[in-house]
Write a structure and sequence with these properties.
The protein has 15 helices and no strands. With 318 residues, the protein is an all-alpha fold. Among the domains are: 58-132, Serine Threonine Protein Phosphatase 5, Tetratricopeptide repeat (Alpha Horseshoe); 232-311, Serine Threonine Protein Phosphatase 5, Tetratricopeptide repeat (Alpha Horseshoe). Helix 11 packs antiparallel against helix 12 (233-249).
């Protein structure tokens, strides 16, 4: 079955944790100039804002740090700022802007011969490329990052997860499976629960594409159990939705309806209105397949009510 971009939510969610943090914060010794300390403080404030999901504030602070570092020719600080700005733009969905800043970070990292920072720049660029729809460039850049890590004696399960996700998108599933085998082992050895869940979810997706639905269900369940513990509502909703789809394929209609309902509730209560509506569509279809027309009509009315409310809200904002 050809993989469609409709599955991009799954892959975006895999990447939401992988490489999601900022590249780092600038450290300044007490005897360094005051202006350099100002750049470091702006960087730290930006990193804190990013961690809270305050992307506009994070962007302002990273840009402030970049201006200061450029004014004093602090190129090490500059490359860090460029990566962090790229990450913010990626989180905002402004992939072209992200790629522009990240390309600058790569060029500067090469000139500085800072392999560790350059590896971060390439990995972040790979993420922006991928989410922006350029899987070819994404594969090239994640390969560059992993190669640099090997020189440094570093192995990253998160980067292997990213590489595998790109392979899945380009239908190179055997290569994705090989990368995920290593990623899962690395993530388990480092006890990185978030990345273990990401590995399991990607493995489940491969099984799903290949028709091994029972295996897919088990891996989605593993991811779900971890996501429940970490409290990531977006991933919890997605896990529930994928498991519901597999129940439906197996003819377990009531189980499917129950999990679709749970997924809808998680999305709605977390403020993911668009995703809640999409899940309702799947739930309505499941109800009709099972012959439960009354429930299908009820959920259709709920969907229409949500869509109407959203439209009213848009009009009021204007």
């Amino acid at each position: 079955m050809k993989l469609k971009r409709r599955n991009s939510l799954l892959f975006a969610s895999l990447l939401a944790i992988s490489l999601a943090g900022c590249a780092g914060v600038q450290k300044v010794e007490s005897d360094k100039p005051f202006i350099q300390a100002k750049a470091a403080e702006a960087n730290r404030t930006g990193a804190d804002a990013y961690a809270r999901g305050e992307y506009s504030r994070a962007l302002d602070k990273f840009l402030e740090s970049l201006r200061i570092n450029r004014s004093i020719d602090n190129r090490a600080g500059e490359v860090l700022d460029l990566i962090n700005i790229g990450r913010v733009y990626t989180s905002l969905g402004h992939y072209k802007d992200a790629v522009n800043f990240l390309n600058d970070s790569v060029r500067l990292g090469v000139s500085l011969k800072d392999d560790k920072m350059l590896s971060e720049a390439y990995a972040t660029l790979a993420k922006a490329d991928y989410l922006g729809g350029d899987s070819v460039a994404a594969l090239d850049h994640i390969a560059e990052s992993i190669q640099l890590d090997e020189k440094l004696g570093i192995r990253s399960g998160a980067k292997l997860n990213l590489k595998a996700v790109i392979f899945i998108e380009t239908e190179r599933r055997s290569e994705a499976a090989e990368a995920l085998k290593s990623a899962l082992a690395l993530n388990k050895s480092s006890k990185d629960e978030l990345e273990i869940a990401n590995s399991c979810r990607a493995i489940a997706e491969i099984h799903r594409f290949e028709g091994r639905h029972d295996d897919a269900f088990e891996y989605f369940k593993m991811a779900y159990d971890i996501d429940k513990n970490t409290g990531d509502s977006k991933k919890i909703a997605l896990d529930l939705e994928r498991m519901a789809e597999l129940h439906l394929k197996a003819g377990r209609n009531n189980d499917a309806i129950f999990l679709f309902e749970r997924s809808y509730i998680v999305n709605l209560n977390s403020g993911y209105i668009g995703r809640a509506v999409q899940t309702l569509d799947l739930l309505i279809d499941a109800c009709r397949i099972s012959g439960n027309d009354d429930k299908a009509v009820r959920y259709s009315k709920m969907r229409d009510s949500i869509l109407s409310s959203v439209e009213v809200e848009k009009v009021n904002v204007r």
